[in-house]
Write a structure and sequence with these properties.
The complex is a heterotrimer.
Chain A: H1 5-41, H2 46-50, E1 53-54, E2 59-60, H3 63-94, H4 100-114, H5 117-140, H6 152-177, H7 180-188, H8 193-204, H9 206-222, H10 249-259, H11 267-300
Antiparallel strand pairs in A: 1-2
Chain B: E1 4-15, E2 18-29, E3 33-37, H1 44-50, E4 61-69, E5 72-73, H2 81-87, E6 88-91, H3 102-112, H4 118-131, H5 135-138, H6 151-164, E7 169-173, H7 181-194, E8 199-203, H8 207-213, E9 216-221, E10 224-230, H9 231-236, H10 241-247
Parallel strand pairs in B: 3-8, 3-9, 6-7, 7-8
Antiparallel strand pairs in B: 1-2, 1-4, 4-5, 9-10
Chain C: H1 2-10, H2 17-23, H3 33-46, H4 48-64, H5 66-71, H6 80-93, H7 97-113, H8 116-137, H9 139-151, H10 156-166, E1 172-173, E2 180-181, H11 184-215, H12 218-232, H13 236-255, H14 263-288, H15 291-299, H16 304-315, H17 317-333, H18 336-341, H19 359-366, H20 375-412
Antiparallel strand pairs in C: 1-2
Helix pairs in contact in C: 4-20, 7-8, 8-9, 11-14, 11-17, 12-14, 13-14, 14-17, 15-16, 17-20, 19-20
Classes of the chains: A mainly alpha, B alpha/beta, C mainly alpha.
Chain lengths: ~300, ~250, ~425
């Protein structure tokens, strides 16, 4: 502050460069949001959200894609949230911080988080469809192709594997915010470990489990690569069941932009669909961010 | 008649290989208040926590020697730690009520013991709160969150919560250290009342407090039990020089 | 039990301690079914994540494996290069120690002799051995894949032989009379796009993280961090859409290149996707540098920016290195952006304004259309295995090497 301006100018320039970098990132986010919202705004209507595509997908709505996305994330959450929560419980409550097992599991979780999503797709195909599905078919359906092909269930389970680390990390963070003294108090009253977890620790970290679920749902709703060949479909005239292929928002965008013959004709629908998907993930992420900041605040109290 | 309740013999405690308690042998009588005093880091809290095996929660703690409660070594292989902790309750330095209502805080212990009868629970909650001398202050707002109570009230609530499990021994780890003088006086008064039914072991860094409420006092220093005797004797005529130095405020 | 105890309590003063002792029995371990089950279930489930990784390893490699095993059955002479490559790969997959040993020895003698004829003979002799090793390990898969072959296109075996030969070629033409599976162009394209995206994303993300960790006031932090989290939540298909529809035209307008979709556009778009990862890890590393470093430097008369660049940034280098590594991992496996914004032509070209095709995009684009069990199918899984191994190794390096170093620097300095 005592320095003269000239002495300080280098510092100002350099700080300025870092500030500009930060602003570039913010600008990128804002530009993407604005462009997509402006492009998709006119398309957004109740009818667009609730009707089927018509005229070879050049007109009409995206209801089946919304429906498929919803089913996908629901089944995915049913699989991922309990397993993720239980793993997080193991890591915080049962495993010793520095034991080899805990370290290995943590490494595995972080590895799962960085494995490319397309690999999950391959795994879903190789394991769920070609191994589990095919074996179920030959065991219960006399070899008729029923589960040994891409469908909603396999896609959802593949997605569940992908989102498992998201859940684990969020829940673990939340479990750690439950003060150690409360565990001690419960144990000192003669509660067993499980009673302590069930009645004290888990209720205290419900918001963390919520955050994890929301983040997982947001991730699952947006990912396309894992379901490219485990269940996503180009177009379906009816709503899918668990053993059917299904339409999904992200895949719909991909298909309309790159696979359809008349890309220009469907431009409004493309923007509309992207807008819907972005709105969905944006809202989910926002609420997760808010929830998470609240948890952290509580921890700092 | 003085009945021995707790009794340790040549007890050593190691924390990650480092000795934290050195050869502790002590007999603690039933239905009396026994105070542990000493400078911080002397091992008095560690010793207290080993009496209901709360040290089990810390990695790397190893205990040798005998820790007998009612003539049973609580570090035996077959000991049921959960039941042990029902029998030996604990009140912590920092009040730690659960983020539940006052009623639910007290009812937590009985409930995990399988008592679900509403009438019975009401009765237990009332008795416990009365025994902890907080009933009159909270009887009209049992459904309110326990976190809304003042520090002193929270600590008495925690004592009530411990009493609701009906332990035989109550361990208290500096229960009044974070409280104002008025709340401290209430807690002290309560402790003296409680010894009618319970064996109480209290760790305190406040010598006056130990002198006021305890029947026996043990002085710990650097992980060793230096002197253990009637409180009056410790404070008026200690045998060891270290005890005298501490009592007269020459160190610590 | 506690009902009894409340009653006891009222008349407690007259009770004998014997009755009390009988009240709570601590001398026998009580079996609590709920706790026992809970612990078993929790421990079991916790191993799931490890299990999944092992399964991914196994099943992705399993589907890639038939390329190598089937080509073995063809007893015609092969070029030395091709057969050697087969060797390497087979040995990798084969965990049977004995077979491996034999292999190594035989390969050695073969290469010493140098003569091609001898080589061929030895290879023939080995056939049954090799098959044994694998069959004892997973006979079902071998049988299964054999069946698949006979079922699928009649040219299956021919296909396989040429597949092996063409893996190291430059051409990726999987669907043709004479399919060629040259991975070089794909690998080159992937690296090219990774480089471009890192050149774009790493400086921006690191500088922004530096700003956030060192210079920014609380209010700016509260703007930047949630923004980054939102960006991290952007589905890659949305970023791909943005790149395809908006960014590509914009960049073409600025730089006046010919091909609208190219590795430059794709690289920038992937950079956007990688920014949150690099930013977050860098910021963590920077804030992990102890405050005392900062204060000591300021006390010595260094200015804020000098402290930031010459004290804090160097102390956090391993963390930044990890951040870039994980950013690379993200870009390397990114599929949707690659599919949508890179043009998808497998060209051997270093020009950033030409179209490229990445490994991940190849899987994404072609897997849905291949015949299951076909060579093409196996080659796609082979590409998947490559991706998997690559990201696994990157993560392992970031995890162990970098973390250890970071810890040493911050604590041991």
């Amino acid at each position: 502050m005592i320095n003269s301006f000239r002495k300080n100018i280098k510092g100002i320039v350099i700080e300025g460069i870092t500030l500009v970098s930060a602003i570039i990132i913010i600008a990128i986010v804002i530009i993407m949001l604005v462009v997509i919202f402006i492009g998709g705004k006119s398309q957004l209507s109740w009818e667009f959200l609730t009707s089927f595509p018509t005229e070879g997908m050049t007109k009409g709505g995206i209801f089946p894609a919304i429906y498929g996305t919803a089913l996908l994330v629901i089944i995915m959450s049913i699989a991922a949230v309990p397993f993720g929560t239980i793993t997080a419980i193991y890591l915080t409550e049962y495993a010793k911080e520095n034991s080899i097992i805990a370290k290995t599991i943590r490494f595995a979780v972080r590895t799962l988080a960085v494995i490319p999503s397309i690999i999950y797709g391959l795994f879903g195909l190789g394991f769920f469809i070609k191994f589990v599905g095919a074996n179920v078919d030959s065991a219960f359906y006399g070899g008729t192709l029923r589960w040994g092909q891409p469908n909603l269930l396999w896609a959802s389970l593949t997605m569940a594997l992908l989102t498992l680390p998201v859940v684990i990390v969020s829940v673990e963070e939340a479990l750690k915010t439950v003060p150690q003294e409360l565990r001690a108090a419960s144990l000192a009253l003669g509660a067993t470990k499980w009673q302590t977890i069930w009645k004290i620790v888990l209720p205290g970290s419900l918001s963390g489990i919520m955050t994890g679920t929301i983040l997982a749902v947001s991730r699952g709703a947006g990912e396309v690569a894992p379901i490219l060949f485990t269940g996503a479909a180009y177009y379906l005239a009816t709503l899918p069941g668990i053993s059917d292929q299904f339409m999904v928002l992200g895949y719909h965008i991909y298909v309309l932009t790159t696979q359809s013959a008349n890309v220009d004709q469907t431009l409004p629908i493309q923007f509309g669909t992207t807008c819907v998907l972005l709105l969905l993930t944006f809202t989910l992420n926002m609420s997760a961010v808010v929830l998470r900041y609240r948890i952290r605040k509580k921890k700092n109290h | 008649m003085i009945v021995e309740k707790i009794h340790t013999e040549n007890m050593f405690l190691y924390y990650s290989g480092k000795m934290a308690l050195n050869n502790i042998s002590i007999q603690i009588p039933e239905k009396k208040v026994t105070a542990f005093i000493g400078p911080s880091g002397c091992g008095k809290s560690t010793f207290l926590r080993s009496l209901n095996r709360m040290n089990d929660l810390i990695d790397g703690v190893k205990i040798e020697g005998k820790v007998m409660i009612d003539s049973v070594n609580i570090y035996d292989k077959n000991i049921d730690v959960v039941n042990l902790r029902k029998k030996v309750g604990m009140v912590f330095q920092k009040s730690n009520p659960f983020a539940k209502s006052i009623y639910e805080n007290i009812a937590y212990g009985p409930k995990i013991n399988g008592i679900n009868n509403k009438h019975q629970l009401d009765e237990i909650v009332e008795t416990a709160l009365k025994n902890a001398a907080i009933w009159d202050e909270v009887k009209d707002r049992l459904g309110d969150s326990a976190l809304g109570l003042s520090g002193g009230q929270q600590q008495r609530l925690c004592i009530a919560r411990t009493l609701a499990v009906n332990p035989e021994i109550v361990l208290m780890d500096e229960p009044a250290s974070a409280l104002d003088p008025l709340s401290t006086a209430k807690i002290e008064e309560l402790i003296v009342q409680l010894k009618e039914h319970y064996t109480i072991v209290i760790v305190t860094h406040n010598m006056q407090q130990a002198a006021r409420i305890s029947d026996n006092t043990a002085f710990f220093y650097l992980g060793e039990l230096i002197e253990y005797d009637k409180t009056r004797k410790i404070f008026t005529n200690p045998e060891k020089k270290q005890t005298e130095d501490y009592i007269t405020g020459r160190f610590g | 039990m506690a009902k009894k105890s409340t009653k006891v309590k009222s008349s407690k003063s007259s009770d004998s301690e014997k009755k009390q002792a009988s009240l709570i029995d601590i001398t026998r371990k009580k079996f609590r079914l709920g706790d026992y089950l809970a612990e078993k279930v929790i421990k079991g489930v916790a191993f799931l994540s490890i299990t999944i990784i092992v399964l991914i390893f196994f099943f992705v490699f399993r589907e890639a494996f038939p390329i190598f095993s089937n080509s073995k059955e063809i007893k015609s002479t092969k070029t030395e290069q091709a057969s050697q490559e087969t060797y390497g790969a087979v040995t990798d997959n084969n965990t049977n120690g004995n077979t491996q040993e034999t292999y190594g020895a035989v390969t050695d003698s073969a290469s010493k002799d140098g003569a091609q004829e001898t080589y061929g003979e030895v290879t023939d002799k080995q056939e049954p051995q090799e098959q044994y090793g694998v069959q004892t390990k997973e006979p079902a898969s071998i049988e299964g894949s054999d069946k698949k072959y006979t079922v699928s296109a009649g040219s299956g075996t021919d296909d396989n032989r040429s597949a092996i030969k063409t893996l190291t070629s430059k051409e990726w033409v999987p669907v043709s009379e004479k399919p060629r599976y040259g991975l070089l162009a794909l690998i080159l394209g992937t690296f090219k796009i990774t480089l471009i995206s890192m050149l774009f994303a790493a400086p921006i993300a690191i500088l922004a993280a530096l700003y956030t960790a060192v210079f920014a006031n609380k209010k700016m932090k509260e703007i930047i961090k949630p923004t980054i989290e939102l960006l991290a939540g952007f589905p890659s298909v949305v970023i791909g859409f943005f790149a395809l529809m908006v960014l590509a035209s914009f960049l073409q307008g600025v730089f006046h290149y010919e091909t609208r979709l190219n590795s430059f556009v794709g690289g920038i778009a992937m950079g956007i996707a990688a920014i949150p990862i690099i930013f977050t890890i860098t910021e963590d590393a920077l804030t992990a540098v102890p405050k005392s470093f900062y204060e000591a430097s300021l006390a010595l008369g260094a200015s804020r920016w000098q402290t930031a660049f010459f004290v804090i940034l160097p102390a956090a280098t391993p963390g930044i290195f990890a951040a870039i590594l994980l950013g690379i991992g993200r870009v390397f496996g990114e599929t949707m952006i690659a599919l949508m914004a890179t043009g998808n032509a497998a060209l051997m070209d270093l020009n950033p304004f030409e179209s490229v095709r990445t490994l991940a995009a190849t899987i994404g684009a072609e897997m849905a259309e291949v015949v299951f069990g076909d060579t093409h199918y196996n080659v796609l899984f082979l590409i998947g295995s490559l991706l998997f191994v690559f990201t696994f190794v990157i993560n392992a390096i970031a995890e162990f090497y970098v973390k250890g170093k970071l810890m040493k620097r911050i604590q041991g300095k």
